[in-house]
Design brief:
The chain is an all-alpha fold. The protein is 80% helix and 0% strand.
């Protein structure tokens, strides 16, 4: 079931905004790496997306045209990716810096056995968000960090034995 949801979501993101697709791909890759998403779900998502995009391409030819347009936009992009990433990071600094600081505090104060460390989810989301915002001039400014932060805070507060995270949370509010 998870593979179907991920496959549908990734196909929609690919069709609507390619940078959102790539940012979500980073989060999906980390989900696979950390064990949150199974290999079977990943393969289901890939096959489902590929089939839907193949059907769209065979019936309308829109997928290759879309990829061609993206390639033209990337090659005509002035300043390159590095300057756009810097611009995206500076535009989202008010959100990404406190989130990264919170992730660093969690990383230093909580020991976790697996790669599924809450701070790593925050770092992955900040990186994906900065990449997404580097190609976006809208007013979304890392809004998709909210579900990740809620997930992390509930996980930390539920598993916290040292009170450190609770004290930090009080400082943030």
């Amino acid at each position: 079931m998870m593979g179907l949801v991920i496959g549908l979501a990734m196909t929609v993101l690919f069709s609507v905004k390619i940078t959102a697709f790539l940012a979500a791909g980073l989060l999906c890759a980390y989900g696979l790496l950390s064990g949150k998403i199974s290999l079977a779900s990943t393969l289901t998502a890939i096959v489902l997306s590929a089939v839907m995009l193949a059907i769209a391409e065979l019936t309308t030819g829109i997928v290759l045209a879309y990829i061609s347009d993206i390639f033209l936009l990337v090659t005509s992009n002035e300043g390159g990716l590095a300057s756009r990433l810097l611009q995206g990071a500076s535009r989202t600094f008010g959100i990404s810096a406190p989130a990264a600081l919170m992730a660093l505090v969690l990383l230093l104060t909580h020991k976790w056995e697996r790669l599924d460390h809450p701070s790593m989810w925050i770092f992955a989301t900040v990186v994906a968000g900065i990449f997404f915002e580097s190609q976006n001039t809208g007013g979304q400014e890392l809004i998709f960090m909210i579900p990740v932060m809620v997930y992390v805070m509930t996980k930390v507060l539920r598993n916290d034995t040292t009170q450190t995270a609770r004290r930090y949370t009080r400082l943030c509010y």
